[in-house]
Amino acid sequence: MPVTIYDIAEGADVSIATVSRAFNGHPRVSETTRERVFAVARALGYEPHASAQSLARQNTQLISAVVPIMTSAFFMEVLRGIQDRLDESHYDLVVYASRTLDSIGGQLSRAVQRGRADGMLLISTPITDARVRQILAARQPVVLVDAYHDDIDSVTVDNRRGGAVATRHLLARGHERIGLLLPVEGSGPSDQRRAGYEDALREAGIEVDEDLILHAMWDHVHHGYTRYAGYQGMRELMGRFEGRDDGPTAVFAAADVLAYGALRAGREAGYRAPRDIDVIGFDDIEPSAYAGLSTVRQPMYEMGKMATELLMRRLGNPASPAQHTVFAPDLVVRESSGGSAEKLV
Amino acid sequence: MPVTIYDIAEGADVSIATVSRAFNGHPRVSETTRERVFAVARALGYEPHASAQSLARQNTQLISAVVPIMTSAFFMEVLRGIQDRLDESHYDLVVYASRTLDSIGGQLSRAVQRGRADGMLLISTPITDARVRQILAARQPVVLVDAYHDDIDSVTVDNRRGGAVATRHLLARGHERIGLLLPVEGSGPSDQRRAGYEDALREAGIEVDEDLILHAMWDHVHHGYTRYAGYQGMRELMGRFEGRDDGPTAVFAAADVLAYGALRAGREAGYRAPRDIDVIGFDDIEPSAYAGLSTVRQPMYEMGKMATELLMRRLGNPASPAQHTVFAPDLVVRESSGGSAEKLV
DNA sequence: GTGAAAGCGCTAACAG
DNA sequence: CTGTTAGCGCTTTCAC
Description:
Chains A, B: GO terms for molecular function: DNA-binding transcription factor activity; transcription cis-regulatory region binding. Two copies of one chain form a homodimer. In chain A, the strands form three sheets. In chain A, strands 2-1-3-4-5-11 form a six-stranded parallel beta sheet. In chain A, strands 7-6-8-9 form a four-stranded parallel beta sheet, sandwiched between helices.
């Protein structure tokens, strides 16, 4: 039978209140009783019951993270950051990983259940009005990562600037016909990346050509954030310029996974990057280093850490106005756009 | 103020017991009152309080997973399997990711706290006697993944056979001097992989040469499971045969990350795989496909799923004898040992 | 400094 | 079919 404060109260000949105080470091417990309590507790192998504490204290010491699992490589890095910050706290992490972007609503509902967690981290979760209501109704502190809403704390990378950085790199390499591969329409971050792409082109005095821009129409459940979507997207893009001489000489894929698929489609068509076509992605997930993919890096670890930091603060101060942290993206040049391959592996 | 069963009992003009019964699908509640209860609950936006339920029911509907975060790529795949199985249940997942293999004890302690979770998944966690005691004392169902102990359910891959498979592949490619790169000594899985390596050599009538075998002495906190350890290990190995002509013509790295480092060290020394040296790893984590690394694949997704399945069963039947599931490893030939590179990306 | 007692919100006998 | 009541294990006033 598990041992409770009653057992140790009896053993130490004090009341359960004193045991509780002793364990919670309450100042007004005499040194001698405190020691006696601890001695008995140790002898009996006592451990406070988490659920009972949660109920009495009205908090769980749990924070939850909701994440679409197809962003796994991205999430792992963010998770490292979360974990590092959490290690300094007394919070544990419960993970709600949804298989598709649409089932994420269900995971969210579980995560916001009363008494489940004290706060919530939403990673790469598209924020619809319905979800905002759900979140607000839960009266739980929330921090968004890689997503944005005016009224909710968020940590993002400057996607627009990132899009521009990627595009400028390609422009600097002499390209003027630059394809843009996007996930399905309506994703906040990728809309921004597109805006950056257009910014850079206009800067360079180049007109935006819709023929060069393509939204994935595949893998809708993953909102087009898959290798397959990139593969099909690239084929489609190449198909548009079949037999013409004004096809793209470079491609900016708005996510690394899209770039992987694009590289493959290009390869199948006989194009090698960067010999025949330059390719750059966005994210810099782990495999990209091995694939030699040029990309725009999001500081995922830092984003996770910062998001957790913000959440910890908000836990202590729920009323303060929403805070938005924006990280700067970094250009990472690898062989897919002419960089040296020597840094690989 | 959050709404409780008392509020909805009052609103529906029944007792709290009836509300509780209605929500728990108890058969003996009349259809009419049930509907009335639900109506009021919906109107008031009632949601049961998780902690209160946990305390009263003496279970949390939470299962925990303890994992060393440096096995992240491995873990992500396992996590997918866990999540898929969990989606069919009413359990949520709390993740204890430790930064080093040594701090895993602390995470374990948090995970086993009374009232925290109903069961536990230990991923790639070395099982010492002290930990076994800790686990047993917690009286929590536990399933090990990628780790083994007689008295605890486990899901593993046949590491010995995997080691033999990798080695035989190299032997079949004509190699007779095969280097073996291992993490620090004493890791269960890698000891088995080494045993398989020796099995294969003996089968082929080749004597085991200790000079060809090397334990990482770097990155002790990660028990040598890092790229850096592989890098240094490979340099050390090459150093041993400096100026001799009996150096290894192939290397079996007991983990993919070690292989990455080894490839790099080889490259720096002017060796390219597979032109000058064959390299094969173990695990088949995601980047390996991009790196073109031949490897022995562990079915990580299936292992996660199976482990969760076993845990669910044990939750219902705590007393049954420990069950050990062993998966067969798969050889995956890629360009680092002569396979076609066309499948990359 | 310590104890008594009233919750925290829900479940589960036990009655009826 | 439904209500009463006693917990689940711990925290926290409020007294002394």
